[in-house]
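Continuing from the previous page of notes. For each protein in this section, the sequence appears first, followed by its structure tokens. Read the first protein now.
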Amino acid sequence: MSNEHKVVITKNETENSLTFQFSSEDSAFVERMTEEVMTKYFGYEKNKSAVRGFDKYRGYIGAKISDKSHEKSSFSTGIRVNDYGKEKFRCHYICPNCNNEGNHYIDENVKLINCHECSYKIKPLSIETEYGVRVDKYNNYYYAGNYVPSDLV
């Protein structure tokens, strides 16, 4: 096999995704190109190894990278769905003990959350119950501690 580089880009209309895969005898090329696509085009953090394997006929093969940017993220919706299909809702908090600010994704019946920094227990409150709207402008369903949904007060 000559020192050729192969780039395969596949568009899947059903899943609305693009998949990139690189192969070459030059592992540095595969690493560099896979990392480039992952970081610049898909916004993934750098991976320790972008090389998925080696094939004696095709050379080094890069990991397949799929663009799922069309999917709504929990950041934009305020909802995460776990592996069992259960929805968890974002609760934004400012810890009254240490002033750490963060998010938890919680079930509707959670009574207390812990501060990520100091483990202080904080009671989450429903934005809908307290303010009559489902979410605040940041798509938080719950709030806790010293956080006040400023767009609702």
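Done with the first. The second protein uses the same format. Note its length before scrolling.
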Amino acid sequence: MKRLFITLLLAMFALGTVLSQNINIKGFGDIPVRKEGEKYLIQIGKFGEFAFTGNLESKELKANVEVQQLEHLPGFKVLSKIGLTDIFLHITGDGLYLNAHADTKSSLKKVCDLFKITTPYIEVSAAIAPRSLEFEGIMEFTDGPVEFLHIDQTGTVVKFNSAKISTTLEPGTAELGFETNVLITPTKFDPELDCTYSFTYDIVSQTLTGAGSMMSEWSNPLGSGQFLDPNSIVFSNAAVELGINVMTLAPVNIGFGIEKAKIFTIEFGVVVSIDPVDKKVAFKGERDKMNANDFTTFLRE
């Protein structure tokens, strides 16, 4: 009888060890794990309880979830509106992650139309922390750069070379951040300029706001090399404006604000504006003050 009691006690202890375990998730600390059949039930802070399968010891676990189960995650306002399907939570040695498909025809349609994305979904992922999500997604350009603007009269061409979602989602966030590489040829006399352009897209109001910068050095701009010595005029350190009509996704203005424009040996501030509607290019240079030597240099050159 005593031996039977000890055997039962050991069996109960072993069963309790199996059913009550812990897992350490980076950023969340030690979390109790309950095992039911082949599933590990894990309560992840305030996010809720999720049923994972996989290897607990090696931290290779995944859980297939529905979007409503993510309602307590930071950034749920965005997650709930972008048509997420095939949603998986993953626990690895590096932390907690989300992988899913986002519908290109739901709230992301306007941006996907801008980039001419025709696939039914894009793949998105997120590194999950207790108070934020680092959310990412690649916008695949299957046929190469996407032409956004082409003006035959001036030779102006604007192309999106690549784009990705890259944003931090926090409680209450309603915006997604996008990073793009833009190739701009201001006129037929100019080289293709390598630019970056970042913008935020408000999922609720469907509005875009952004800013960019020119990575290239722009020499002999607007055909000036036909009349002046090479590199007589060089633009650098330029901010880039890309005006987009949110309703039609048509370009309304392309602008360059050049902080450092070398005209001969004198530095100016310069603004270049390209009007896609009137198909005109405007150029304006200014300098706070010029002394007699500056005038002499300017006229001599």
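What the second structure shows: The radius of gyration is 28 Å. The helical segments are 2-19, 76-79, 109-114, 292-300. We return to this in next week's lecture.
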